[in-house]
Amino acid sequence: MKKRKYWTGEGAPRRWKGRCGRNGLAALCCLMLLLIAAPAALAEEEGDELQLPAVDVVAKSVIEGNVVDGFGSTTTVVSREQIEALNAVDLPEALRRVPGVTISRHNHVGSWGGGEGGAVFIRGMGSSRPGSEIKTYIDGVPMYMGPWNHPLMDLLPVDAAESLEVAKGPQPQKYGNSLSAVNMRVKRHRGDGSATSLRMYAGSYGTMGESIEHEGGDEDFNYYLGQGYVRSDGHRKDSWGNKLGYYANLGFGLSDNWDLSVLALGTTNRSSDPGPDTAGGVSDGTYGTNAQLLSATLSHDHGLFDGEFKFFVNTGEGNWKDQAGTDDDCLNDFTFYGVRLKETAHPWQGADLTVGLDVDAWQSTIHFTYDNRADRYVNPDDYYLTMPYVSASQLIGDREGWFAQPSLGMRYYEHNEYDSETAPFAGLVFGYADTEAHVSVSRGVVYPGHDVIAAIWVPFGGAETLEAETTDHFEAGVSQRFGDMATADVTYFHDDGRNRYVVNAGAWSNVEKYDIHGWEFTLTLTPTDNFSVFAGLTTQETTPDDLPYAPATTLSGGFTWRFLEDFTLNMDCEYVDEMYAMSQARVNNAANLQEVDSHFVTNARVGWDFESEILGGGELYLAVENLLDEEYAYKPNYPMPGINGTIGLKLNF
């Protein structure tokens, strides 16, 4: 097969292959996949000869949809159905087809570290290390690597996810101290009764996994308990990984107006870096993570007023051992705790007036060990960040006809080590019935973390003089719904970033700037109850033009087809343009010369729903990844797996 080319030398061409030709090929391949299934699906619905019993409408393909809130901000939602259809075992796999999202990884199971070994990037954001513009949350609680101020994908066990929410750009009305965000909603019981599910699966490269869940209760008390484990030898030597997650989500109905929910969650993970597949390539060791989270939320709804109070604490570790073939280790402990307070009033028809307060505190310990048995400890002072905010919106008219919803607000930041900041935001959502347009402006703020203290490669310090990184975000778009049959969206986005902290003349300094702008197009079609299809396109331009994991063009698509009453076929595909890779160094004027080639990857999953007197209800499924055996990589000289498969059984009791 053709040898993959990776440009690493100075002056390597940015777009050395014909983009139009490759984009056209990707679009044609996606279209062919859809055309294979569409005629049969339509015939099954409309044909005279084959009359099948009515079935529920199939789940949407790839994403559940794009949600525009009252402030004109866009969030893409991936539901549990899409996560299972993608056969995803971790967060990057679950988000890999979301328009505007790019991922990195080099293991079949598990995310090695928080950079090119396992990360997500949203519209060009998230490429800087240490530190990151993207933050990750579990039910609104921050969960990421505190000492180095960036996410670790394995800290969010995807088996526990009811849905994933991708906030595309700063949304100060929801999240503080971030420029983009991923929030994982944990499964919870709804309704009355109880249920149990068991899933077992095995696949290529010695991959094996299982999960078990049990839920039950009523409006006075309910619970959802779950556990999941997966491990794999990996597709290359020393590319193994394993992941364990467990959770309990409890709900208490205190009265007609008050509720209490308690979430406990834990995860333990470990993976190995296989090293580059070149002569003399050396592994960069292993990366192990674990975390425990506890949060309690007291919420109320009194009609004219509703709100919630949330307290949380989480602790964890991220340990990088045997770095670059040595015995050097970097051992990191972190603790987060804080509160979320939010109260919304509805004083008259269509009005929402909100006041809120977010308080975050985090502690870190960094322990470096070396071949010569020397130790170095970094114990930075605790950080405290207080973030009050206010917002107001007013719905004018009726969403069944003409309507407009203007909004505005402000978030204030008070840090115990750095200067205070403000983040204003405003938006307008307007339209007529099934036609909706939105415009929003917002400022994102993200503070330096303990990374600027722990970074041993900055001998002259300068951390105390830093300011927060800020981004001014503009977004405008239009959505058109065609009843229950189709939804089309188009969005323009622009981010103007400044004060990115980097090493300049031997010390930390706020000197870096960047500019990102582009377009997103999505289309969801559900022409029949048994067939749903999705297509998404993202184009973007960046300054500087070597921002990692910010491809000029990505194209994703997929379909879900229910056939022969009990069978479901899911197919998804994605084309990613050639792009710069590796993490953006926090060094002034650092050039990024490493690229990976474009790729087009297709996956498929077919499932059979069955009923059995012995086993109860369930599904037997077969999933095939990289169906066309594409050669590709997210990191130079780190090839991803070729065609591989998984067979699984899910039982419902």
TrEMBL record:
One of its GO terms (cellular component) is cell outer membrane. Residues 1-43 form the signal peptide. Keywords: Cell outer membrane, Membrane, Signal, Transmembrane, Transmembrane beta strand, Transport. GO terms for molecular function: siderophore uptake transmembrane transporter activity. It comes from the Bacteria. It is found in: Cell outer membrane. This is Iron complex outermembrane recepter protein.
